[in-house]
Amino acid sequence: MFGLGMPELVVLLVIILIIFGAGKLPEIGSGLGKAIRGFKKGMSEPDAIDVTPKEKGEEGRKEGIEKH
């Protein structure tokens, strides 16, 4: 796993516990999980960009201006 063995992971966990404290770990894990889920969802959904050409008078009607 990224070239990290068990001793390195334990050292990282201890450093994280020292920096954030045990109370903040569930919040950090929850936020990280939501970020990963959002990223996966964004990658799997098709793009929602509408590239259909507009009609000539359509732009003016949206802004409330009629073109003659």
Automatic annotation (TrEMBL):
Membrane topology classification: Single-pass membrane protein
GO biological process: protein transport by the Tat complex
UniProt keywords, alphabetically: Cell membrane, Membrane, Protein transport, Translocation, Transmembrane, Transmembrane helix, Transport
Gene Ontology terms: cellular component: TAT protein transport complex
GO MF annotation list: protein transmembrane transporter activity
Keyword Transmembrane recorded: yes
Biased composition (Basic and acidic residues): 52-68
Keyword Transmembrane helix assigned: yes
Function comment: Part of the twin-arginine translocation (Tat) system that transports large folded proteins containing a characteristic twin-arginine motif in their signal peptide across membranes. TatA could form the protein-conducting channel of the Tat system.
NCBIfam families referenced in this protein's UniProt entry, alphabetically: tatAE (TIGR01411)
Name used for this protein in its record: Sec-independent protein translocase protein TatA
Species for this entry: Candidatus Manganitrophus noduliformans
